[in-house]
Amino acid sequence: MRVIRLPLIGTVAAWRGHVRQLARRSVPPEAVLWQVGEGGADLFAADPPGGDGPVPDPSVPPLTLPREVIGAIETALCHSDPQRFARAYALALRLFGKALRWGDRSDAPLRRLLDQEKAVRRDIHKMHAFVRFRDVTPPDATRRAFAAWFEPEHAIVEAAAPFFARRFGDMDWVIATPSLTARFEDGLLTFAPTAHHAPPPEDATEKLWCTYFASIFNPARLMVSAMTSEMPKKYWKNLPEAALIPDMIRAAPARARGMQEAMPTLELAHVARLRPQRPALTADVGLEDLKPALDACRRCPIGACATQGVPGEGPRHAPLMIVGEQPGDAEDLAGRPFVGPAGQVFDRCATAAGLDRAKVYVTNAVKHFKFQPRGKRRLHERPTQDEISLCRWWLDLERQAVKPGLLVAMGATAAAALTGDGTRLTSRRGRLETTADGSPVLITLHPSYCLRLPDRAAQVRAETQLTDDLRLALQIAAGSR
Ligand code: URA
């Protein structure tokens, strides 16, 4: 029996390295005992000299698997199942030897791995959603510092932490879990075994968060099962707002009754729909009047929370109108579209495509920033279909004033607003579609999509696609004049 001790940090990468060596040496899965971390002495045998066993057999090709398969296996390796390393090695050999087809759920070991991968993904999602930072900035510090305590079900800290490094890159933070602690300091993400097994002290941010949570809770829409499936009870003990939930659930029926009694008598919805809602749009609508009108817009609730409305900008009769989703944090503060990180990607691609931003009209499908307050940050939230439809009134107004020869929809929200088709972009990118009134719309990627991609190579590929589409848009618009 060969014993392989995997490190507590970098476990998955170490497993991958060992598996390659073991496969080259034709070591069968049942001849390997896998252990993680310190201690846990092997009862059967010592590590054989020379690392992973007999000399590599040059006639055995190196173990390679498609990227998608490796990704799924490595995610499943974060599961808490103690047998996962042995099982994944056995599966990798069968897949490589073509004794098993990837995705064949009739194979019990493969089905187990896929289920474990799903469970790990869910745990990572919950960690992203439920980590609650507390402000621990020392009085004389130059960078703000935050700490959080979280108890994941699986060994996901290394897989989940890069998300926080991207989102909270401008502050120092620590997320401690019972086994590992992720630390982000001066832009550097490191991991270490957890030394202190206790949540950080309370702070003012947390009180604000609880006040916000209590204020958004709508007793008339209480669905306990949905609430507990989205926010499972096992996470409650580390969520400050969860302490409020039992009282809110208890008081919900009485509060909902009170809301109903206090409600004014509303016009029937179908009657309201029949009445013409839109003032007639005229050709001489002043784009310069747009800003104050947008600031005052309360057609949907987003406007009430944003700093200001963000109209499009560009020449009145621009040949090209480029439509994004909605202003982000930076745009909300500046009152101008595409000036934040997504704007930088857009500018880079536009320049590479030979497109002069000053000569096109750049706008958004939704004119206010929709966000979720999270501590001191405002996290982008996608607009709903209703919000997109309500805001189309403004987009139509801009279209009527500018009359572009070609529209470019960057991302799914803009594509939905312009074509009415909200399906994914994967098969639509680079295609010409039409609006309900027959105007051509070129579909392309949203610049933020490029920013969200996990590795640099994928980002470069996506930016190249966006650049190609912008170049194509320029050619089409030039031809249509
Ligand atoms: N994302 C958008 O869709 N629009 C902006 O203006 C900024 C970011």
Structure, explained:
- The chain is of the alpha/beta class and 481 residues long.
- It folds into four domains: 2-126, no CATH class; 131-193, no CATH class; 206-261, no CATH class; 283-479, 3-Layer(aba) Sandwich (Uracil-DNA Glycosylase, subunit E).
- It is built from 17 helices and 14 strands.
- It has helices at 11-24, 67-76, 84-96, 108-130, 157-167, 204-216, 224-230, 245-262, 269-274, 290-295, 302-305, 329-334, 341-352, 385-402, 412-419, 447-452, 456-479, and strands spanning 2-6, 32-36, 134-135, 145-149, 172-176, 180-185, 188-193, 320-324, 361-364, 371-374, 377-380, 406-410, 432-434, 440-444.
Summarize the structure.
This protein is of the alpha/beta class.
Q: What is the general shape?
A: globular
Count up the helices.
17
Helicity range of the residues?
A: 40-55%
- Please count the beta strands (DSSP E, at least 2 residues each): 14
Indicate the mean pLDDT: 85
Small-molecule binders: uracil
Oligomer: single chain
The CATH topology of the largest domain turns out to be Uracil-DNA Glycosylase, subunit E
Distance between the termini: 76 Å
Rg calculated over all Cα atoms: 27 Å
What is the architecture of the largest domain at the second tier of CATH? 3-Layer(aba) Sandwich
CATH class call of the largest domain: Alpha Beta
Largest sheet: 5 strands, mixed
Structural class designation: alpha/beta
Strand content: 5-15%
pLDDT < 50 stretches: 39-50, 264-268, 270-285
Number of domains: 4
